[in-house]
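The pair is listed for reference:
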Amino acid sequence: MRKYRQVNTDGSAHRIFEGQLRFCSSDDKKNYKVKLMLLNEKVNRNNWQYTRVAEHAREAENIPLLYSVIDGKIGNSHDFTIVTDENGNQYASFIGAESEHPYGWLPEMINGQPNARMETIDGVEWLTATAYLPSFYNTEMIKELEKNGGQMPISIETLVSKFHMDGDVEVEDSYTIVGVTILGVTTTPAVAGANIRKLALKEGQLKELKLRVASLISADSNNEPQTQQKSTKGVGKSMKILNLDDIRDKFEGYTVLGCNGLSVALLSDEGRTFKYTFQENEDTVVPSRIEAVAVNSVFGEGDGAVTVSAEQLIGTEKSQLNAAKAALEKEVQKNAELTAKLNKMEEQETARRKEAVKAAIKSRLADNKHDCGYDLPDTLCDSLMTDECIGKYAGMVDEHGAFCGEKQAMCDVDALCMDEIRKENKAKAEQKAKNNGFKWSNIRDGADESGASKGVMSSLARISK
């Protein structure tokens, strides 16, 4: 048997209101009479508010009083199973061994007077009624009730067909009271936002019901979520189980908090709570079916308990987080713009430096040609004008970070010019030495000594006389 959990689907809504059962009398051997505090118009812990309770008083008559027993715990919780009939229709079944069963009833009349009535209790207008538990069939429950001082918590089940939101409060405008469930004293009241589960009831035709409960089993008991499982008898029907990792990206603008069956709990960027229920074999989210839900946390217990909505609890932090995100995005955008401007300026400065280096190389070469009187070739500095060299010069800075590429380029031009001048001077010197030699140094070996050679020898002969 699985626990009865909050459900959200389209159509009517099944609501649970926490009330109280009090012992009245056991004036006969057959029936054990109890008084039920059923409903009032105050906002309950789930942030639901029922209106015109007095007008619905007679609906609290001729309805069942139920409870379940699981592992010896009397008044376990809202327990049931979902089965599928031979036509494929789903409905809630309460005949299982661990389901809640009708063990008593709320009669229509008491001593000739309408059973359900409005009473002021501790300053609050309550819808109250009397119920009977057949003593022979409720021995353990009666003992449990007496052991707990003659009172136990109850949940009033209602089918809500129309409601509206008043801020965080869901106001129930049109509803029907269908039953009362006795809860164990260890069953703790549910905070709003209980897990979501679908319940289908067949009343002539299948209805999708939105089911909410006002109590859950305590944390130290079996708190396994209700699932639909296929039994060996074929009465169950398997249901697609959602994987959080597969659906996180489907809800833009929402954070997926969790899922249960086909239903998903969502938190908007503004800190509001929503839910969405997938249909069978549905993979695409229909935004219009995302519905707001009231989610609350209860601080403390009893009359001193304080109920705080999820928006109050996390809204401020969420707003601050959103503001921080917006500020971060603004700063990131501002940084991107500044970076783009800086890159643009760097590109412009690099282009300027390259042009400055090229101009410096050409100017230096022209000055050197003019000043030194040498006919230096115009192609002398071509090796310095390549894109690679110009890029290196454009990136040069000194120890202070100042651009020095132009100065280095001119130094390299001077070096090339000096080397070229040195080569030219060497060639001229070699040519001059060749032009200033003696005549006889040009006589080749084996040449005829007539002519000039004979003239020289004659001159020597005359000097020697």
Remarks:
- The first strand starts at residue 2 and ends at 3.
- Residues 2-235 form one domain.
- DSSP finds six helices and 26 strands in the chain.
